[in-house]
Design a protein that fits this description.
Layout (H helix, E strand, L loop, with lengths): L1 H14 L11 E7 L2 E7 L5 H8 L18 E4 L2 E4 L5 H4 L3 E3 L8 H12 L9 H14 L5 H8 L9 H18 L1
Parallel strand pairs: 1-5
Antiparallel strand pairs: 1-2, 3-4, 3-5
């Protein structure tokens, strides 16, 4: 699997659909990831996804499509859900990057993860880090989301297993549990 992902990364960097290529010139870039300041020596054009996965070994964020169409690579950038496969690492410098690895440390992340388990959301599990990141970003800003709010926040995060009804129920449950806690 590692050699497959390495090949995908090389192809992604060379032929990224968003025009993000690797200039080949590495430089030190300072990032704030999950509350820690980290310096990485990478090309500024390298997608944030590959820096997280390959350079930092944080494999909770998944590669899905490499074109920001599926949402498996969703992380938070200054609290906003973004697709890390289409964000150059240089764009994350000076901003707060939060990955799935840090979700259990936040009250919103804990509530979302508990609701995910309660509602049996995961099936194959591949999209779950992106789904949880999208739901957490929504609930951090809107503690009482409507169905329309949920649809807008979660659009573009594809679940191949089709657990959209469970995802919606889990988001509503997490919102309700957070309102009880204050």
């Amino acid at each position: 699997m590692q050699s497959y992902l390495g090949a995908v990364r090389a192809f992604s960097i060379a032929h990224n659909n968003d025009g993000i290529g690797n200039s080949g010139e590495n430089r030190m870039i300072s990032l704030s990831v999950n509350g820690r300041t980290i310096s990485v020596n990478d090309s500024p054009d390298t997608p944030l996804l590959w820096v997280l996965r390959d350079t930092l070994g944080m494999t909770g964020t998944k590669f899905g499509c490499g074109a920001a169409l599926c949402g498996a690579c969703t992380v938070h950038l200054d609290g906003n859900a973004v697709r890390s496969c289409s964000i150059p690492v240089s764009a994350a410098a000076g901003k707060k990057v939060t990955t799935i690895e840090a979700m259990a440390a936040s009250p919103v992340g804990k509530a979302v993860q508990a609701a995910w388990i309660k509602h049996d959301v995961p099936q194959c599990g591949y999209c779950q880090s992106g789904q949880i990141m999208g739901a957490s970003a929504l609930l951090a800003k809107n503690r009482k989301p409507s169905d329309t709010d949920i649809d807008a926040a979660m659009s573009g995060i594809v679940c191949r297993c089709g657990t959209y009804n469970q995802i919606r129920a889990a988001i509503k449950d997490a919102a309700q549990s957070m309102s009880k806690e204050g």
